[in-house]
Amino acid sequence: MDYGVLIKIFQEPEKEDRRKYSPSLIVETKKKAVFDNPEMSRICTSHTERMNGSIRNFSKRLARLTYCFFKKWSNHEAALALCFAHYNYCHKHRSLNGLTPAMAHGLEDHKWTMRELLEKVIQFTHN
Question: What is the value of pTM for the model shown?
């Protein structure tokens, strides 16, 4: 596996900007190979940022400025597992021509319904 990172260097925020929720301006970026020989032109944060946004959107407990939170780590893990399962097996993606990620990778031949997802969860937890 090839692996690299993109390091973003931000400008020191002005006093007024410190009250905002958005980050400061990016003044420089550095790409660095971490493992093996990644294609440097393909190192970016776009996919990670998009996934973070999707996770926060699907699981409102992870959204900013909310009173919702998990008191037990096991509840947090279960909610994220359900979120990821829905994203990969139940949610059709336009970028995949209406397929779910599981269908696009050949793991499934159809989009799961919520009933199917919950039945699989129950089946998994009882084994």
Answer: 0.67
